[in-house]
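Progress note, sequence design subtask.
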């Protein structure tokens, strides 16, 4: 699914999922074999591979829901 990573007004990293009209704050980030796993405030875990370092935002990425 396509997601957009960006910062909210408080400077926190957020994920916006257009198809679900969902915007949630990232509460945890971990590295995995395939990329990074972002845990959202609603409990979703999204895995995003091929992230550039340093992270360039706002940017649209392809993500896979882990749980």
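Output:
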């Amino acid at each position: 699914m396509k997601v957009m990573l960006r910062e909210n007004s408080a400077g926190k990293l957020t994920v916006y999922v257009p198809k679900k009209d969902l915007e949630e704050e990232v509460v945890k980030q971990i590295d995995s074999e395939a990329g990074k796993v972002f845990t959202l405030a609603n409990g979703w875990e999204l895995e995003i591979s091929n992230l550039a370092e340093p992270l360039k935002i706002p940017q649209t990425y392809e993500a896979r829901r882990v749980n």
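The chain has a mean pLDDT of 94. Work on this subtask will continue into the next period as scheduled.
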